[in-house]
Amino acid sequence: MWVGICDDYPPYVTPLMLACEKNSFPAVKILLHYGHRLHKPHLPDCTCPECEMMEDVSLIEAKTRYTEFKCLASPPYVILSTFDPLLYMFRLNSVLKAESKTEPEFYDEYTAIANHFCMQLLNQCRTKVEVMILLSRQVEFPMRTTPMPFNRVHQALELDLYTFVTNVNCQQVWGFPYFKIKIL
């Protein structure tokens, strides 16, 4: 049976993108198992040969990039395709910040994407121990030689992710030891 073009979705939407938009963990897992991957979209100032051929960046291309970034930041894709979801989102956040500056019409959407998953992951922690494990995980710090007590908090501060740092779960764990030290 021949399947035609669906008018319900734009032509650039792949099955994996659709599964990510619908937050379907089983569908994303199956598609990843069979080798489907999402690729980072080209930024507007990209100078690769493919982008050089395009004359003008239209609103359709901007919307396509927004949809691709939204799928790259979807919880099923991030959790199932990365070894370290929080570090992946921190890195994607810096790309999204740059993208939001080049495409002001999607500034609010890119900012929401950047903060949404990190906050969701932090809110899923049920105990202080889980939050401490999440925040203490060792990450790459090119300028630091000594381990920090809460690496993820320091990295979030370096990336200006203040909503992550001000999360209630983060404050319960991170704020208490420093507050206790200051009192003594």
TrEMBL record:
User: InterPro entries attached here?
Assistant: TRP_dom (IPR013555), TRPC_channel (IPR002153)
Q: Which residues form the Transient receptor ion channel domain?
A: 46-107
Membrane-spanning ranges: none
Top-rank lineage group of the source organism: Eukaryota
Q: Which GO terms describe its molecular function?
A: calcium channel activity
Question: Which key words tag this protein in UniProt?
Answer: Ion channel, Ion transport, Repeat, Transport
A cellular-component GO term for this protein:
membrane
Entry's SMART domains? Answer: TRP_2
For this entry, the protein name equals Transient receptor ion channel domain-containing protein
Source organism per entry reads Helobdella robusta
Gene it is expressed from: 20216980
